[in-house]
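#onboarding

Welcome to the new folks! Below is a worked example of what a typical request in this channel looks like: someone posts a single protein sequence, and someone else replies with the predicted structure as tokens. Don't worry about understanding the tokens yet, we'll cover that in week two.

Example request:
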Amino acid sequence: MGFGGLLLFGALASVANIAGGLFLTASGIHRRSERLLKYLVALGAGFMLAAIFIEIVPETVHIWTEGRAGGVEEGTGAVVGAMALLLAGYLLIQFVEHTITPHFHFGAETHPESVIRPSAAYTAIGGLLIHTFFDGVSIAAAFLVDRKVGLLVFIAILLHKLPEGFTVASIMLASGRSLRKARVATLAVGMATLAGVLVVALLESRLDAAVSYALPFSAGVTLYVAASDLIPEVNHQEEKNPLVSFVVFVGVALFYLLHRLIEI
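Example response:
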């Protein structure tokens, strides 16, 4: 895919972030959309997990072992290297969300009764900026590997963008910031996705191996978002509505269906 195509998909993902923030900041909309957001979180979690294990990890193994003539031992070493990058991506977000920004949490919550310190809110937004930057990295790296892989990864990430934007605005409003600042924060987080796309696209034009490293690393980031951010939120919502948990399996089934149908 060309540079213009990558920018288009990065921009679409960014717009979804911004739309999520508008759901909250537009008067009354967040009350009507709260149930939809819960289902989107669950659907996105299932879709992302399926994308990682059915599409991204096999493609990563293929890239890292292709053309190696050193036999099983060398191939195994290559796979270990790729999985180490995946683990590094996962641990990076663990470090950012729970060491650098320990007050950060994901979820479509409006904090109606709590007040967050402004410093904690800005730190949480900083963590989300890193998180969404790697959303963009994932989209670009996947499209540069294969258009089908790219489209499936894009859909997986798009499904959690709306709740993510909702979360950004929620955090800012809970800290006492104005509607304008909540919207600016949502815009910044959306632009971070586009920045991730741009970085990978520019690096790929100068460094052929960039995608082979970016794909497993960003897969680790995506795995963290799905398994450690979204799934716990789904499990929390399950106490009130068991159907939310069922939608995770719908997300997996939807991915598998698209995986079989999309031949680009």
